[in-house]
């Protein structure tokens, strides 16, 4: 932090290092969408209630509309743009969503993919982990939950979690 209202943070986003000067009240969702132009992260409720803005910060799902950008200083952030491989090969979660016919509404889906990814990145998987309860954190406004559940149950746990 250099002044009371401005600070410089360093973070990686989708594996790319960034050093950015920000205002202390900038939200993480605005950092990724407006400053880094990664607009796959959605803003829907803007109140921390729906999960559309979910990103992973050091592997943990975070509602980016409620998180100050400075809290990601030094962290590794993953947005939906970074989920597929560099050669655009789909991640196992994305493949499961695709194969299960998950709706592609564009609002909830990026957050759902990242929420599911965080679930399968848990190493070791906590005892009693329940993917359906995990899914409850995010809202699908058109109520396509059964399809999401099918996709999550069909996704194999990942062994290459960072
Ligand atoms: S837009 Fe962030 S939780 Fe809904
Ligand atoms: S599929 Fe996105 S809101 Fe239902």
Tell me about this structure.
The protein is of the alpha+beta class and 162 residues long. It has 2 domains: 6-82, Beta-grasp domain (Ubiquitin-like (UB roll)); 92-154, DNA polymerase, domain 1, CATH 1.10.150.120. It is 28% helix and 17% strand. It has helices at residues 28-35, 92-100, 109-121, 131-135, 145-154, and strands at 6-13, 16-23, 54-57, 60-63, 76-78. The protein has a 5-stranded mixed sheet, with helices on both faces. The chain starts with 5 loop residues before the first strand and ends in an 8-residue tail after the last helix. The mean pLDDT is 90. The structure holds FE2/S2 (inorganic) cluster (FES) (2 copies). Residues 103, 105, 107-109, 140-142, 144 line the site of one FE2/S2 (inorganic) cluster. One FE2/S2 (inorganic) cluster binds at residues 43-46, 48-53, 63, 65.
Q: Could you tell me which ligands this complex binds, including any ions or cofactors?
A: FE2/S2 (inorganic) cluster
Number of helices, counting only DSSP H or I runs of 4 residues or more: 5
What's the overall geometry? globular
Query: What would CATH call the class of the largest domain?
Result: Alpha Beta
Mean of residue pLDDT values: 90
Question: What's the arrangement of strands in the largest beta sheet?
Answer: 2-1-5-3-4
Helix content: 25-40%
What value does the Rg take, in angstroms? 16 Å
Distance between the termini: 29 Å
Contiguous runs where pLDDT drops below 50 for at least 5 residues: none
């Amino acid at each position: 932090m250099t002044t009371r209202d401005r600070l410089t943070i360093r973070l990686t986003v989708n594996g790319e290092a960034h050093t950015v000067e920000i205002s202390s009240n900038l939200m993480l969702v605005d950092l990724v969408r407006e400053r880094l132009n990664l607009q796959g992260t959605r803003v829907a409720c803007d109140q921390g209630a729906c999960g559309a803005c979910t990103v992973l910060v050091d592997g943990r799902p975070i509602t980016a509309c409620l998180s100050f950008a400075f809290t990601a200083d030094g962290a590794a952030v993953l947005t939906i743009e970074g989920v597929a491989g560099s050669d655009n090969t789909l991640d196992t979660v994305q493949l499961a969503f695709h194969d299960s016919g998950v709706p592609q509404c564009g609002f909830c889906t990026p957050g759902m993919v990242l929420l599911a990814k965080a679930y399968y990145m848990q190493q070791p998987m906590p005892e009693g982990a329940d993917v359906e309860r995990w899914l409850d954190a995010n809202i699908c406004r058109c109520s396509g939950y059964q399809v999401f559940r099918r996709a999550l149950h069909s996704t194999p746990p990942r062994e290459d979690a960072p």
